[in-house]
Write a structure and sequence with these properties.
The complex is a heterodimer of chains A (253) and B (203). With 253 residues, chain A is α/β, with parallel strands linked by helices. Helix content of chain A is 34%, strand content 22%. With 203 residues, chain B is mainly α. The chains are: A alpha/beta (253), B mainly alpha (203).
């Protein structure tokens, strides 16, 4: 069967020699929602940057052969980077890194324009994406005048406008207030794409994900259903995590 | 931080704000060119332009104190150059002319930028076939000016909250490390922005 994502023995070292990924094997089927958890510095962000070909090309040594990652059966190579990046939408941790255009419209239109859509279709894609994240009418706003939650949603719209088949999200709920977190989770739940979510928000993993993967020291330490993994207190504590509050007492309230 | 530090009045409303951005940009450029080519000592010409600009300022309802403050911040840069003219024969006259010219040009640009959103100006430039690389550079500069100021302010606050030693010398010394830090952070951010750009298909 063809997996949405297939990583085999993925290794990566940064130019300063620090090993970030030490042999990752992971297969993700289409439609799965994978929560990637683990302590700071476990290699979560590094792993995500590989999924649409930003690493190893960007920065570090070309240590990993491109064929170590397959997206819908296709190995990532310099020839198919364009189509890979369209298929895999990447949400960065800091919205200020991702919102680099002077207006919301320009920013959401950036991806579709890069992928060669004609202007009328670009407009349509932007309107649709902004409506999806609940920010219809924000087109002319300047990014520096938005709240963190709004910025994050504009970033998401910028990705959704490219209609990706896989969504890769780096800490989507960090720095959000509880309402922002709740709204974002509802938004993510409504998007049918395959999702890989790196997060410290363990409740999100329990609520949204169909599978949890624990990453520590550049290796996969555990992989399984979120409720089973996250309720395993010794496992959680061994990897700098904890049993989330929602799993503390299983009796109905 | 004050997200409206540089464009507090750009999104306000007045008869001037409602004019098309292309018209405002064209008129502003025309005023600047006329001001620059006026010969030394044409005080009547400078007067006419000054009155025109004051009229626009009044109609735009941008507070005078805001315009003056901005002018005072920018003027020293121009004054440094004008100061050199004092060493020439008839230096006083040349100096006064240069001072008048820079003040009028700065006033024009301040009025333009506080009555027009920057994104609208970029849009006009794009339509006027200004090279794409220049427009993109301006757009990125405008976007990250706010992030940079924000970052500098956070660092200054963090430093102030741990500074127990008063004194100017100490302040200056730490300022240099702040500038260095800011530079390092900016390069790191530039790398992340570039990654975010290629992630959405930039090539």
């Amino acid at each position: 069967m063809t997996y949405a994502l297939e990583l085999s023995d993925l290794r990566f070292s940064y130019p300063d020699g620090s090993e970030a990924l030490r042999g990752i094997d992971l297969r993700v089927a289409e439609g799965e929602c994978v929560g990637l958890i683990g302590p700071n510095g476990a290699g979560k962000s590094t792993l995500l940057l590989h999924l649409n070909g930003i690493l190893p090309e960007f920065g570090g040594r070309r240590e990993a052969a491109p064929s170590m990652i397959r997206v819908f059966g296709e190995p990532i190579s310099s020839a198919n980077l364009g189509s890979i990046r369209r298929a895999v939408g990447l949400l960065f941790q800091d919205p200020d890194d991702q919102l680099f255009c002077p207006t919301v419209f320009e920013d959401v239109a950036f991806g579709p324009r890069q992928f060669g859509l004609v202007e009328a279709n670009v407009r349509e894609a932007v309107t649709r994406a902004l409506a999806m994240v609940g920010l219809a009418g924000f087109e002319t706003r300047a990014p520096h005048r938005l709240s963190v939650g709004e910025k994050r949603r504009v970033c998401l719209a910028g990705i959704l406008a490219c209609e990706p088949r896989i969504l890769v999200l780096d800490e989507p709920t960090s720095n959000l207030d509880p309402r922002g977190r709740r709204e974002l989770k509802a938004l993510l739940a409504a998007i049918p794409a395959t999702k890989i979510i790196a997060t410290h928000d363990l409740e999100l993993v329990v609520q949204l994900c169909t599978r949890a993967v624990v990453l520590d020291g550049g290796k996969i330490a555990a992989d399984g259903p979120p409720v089973d993994l996250l309720a395993d207190e010794p496992l959680m504590l061994a990897h700098g995590l904890e049993r989330p509050h929602v799993l503390q007492h299983r009796h109905p309230h | 931080m004050r997200a409206d530090l540089f464009d507090r009045y750009s999104y306000a409303d007045s008869s001037i704000h409602r004019l098309p951005a292309a018209l405002k940009l064209a008129v502003a450029l025309a005023i600047v060119i006329v001001t620059v080519v006026l010969p030394v000592g044409r005080w009547d010409g400078f007067m006419v332009i000054a009155l025109l600009l004051i009229g626009v300022a009044a109609a735009s309802r941008v507070p005078g104190s805001f315009i003056v403050r901005r002018l005072v911040t920018l003027e020293p840069l121009a004054l440094g150059v004008a100061g050199l003219a004092m060493f020439q024969p008839h230096g006083g006259r040349i100096f006064a002319t240069m001072l008048a010219k820079t003040t009028l040009c700065l006033l024009t640009m301040i009025l333009l930028s506080s009555t027009t959103p920057f994104a609208a100006l970029l849009d006009v430039m794009k339509r006027a076939r200004v090279p794409d690389i220049l427009v993109s550079t301006l757009a990125l500069m405008y976007r990250y000016l706010f992030v940079l100021v924000d970052e500098a302010q956070r660092m200054r606050r963090a430093r102030a909250s741990r500074t127990f030693r008063p004194g100017r010398w100490w302040t200056w010394r730490t300022l240099t490390t702040v500038i260095g830090q800011l530079f390092v952070r900016s390069t790191e951010r530039a790398e992340r922005i570039y990654a975010a750009m290629i992630a959405r298909g930039w090539s």
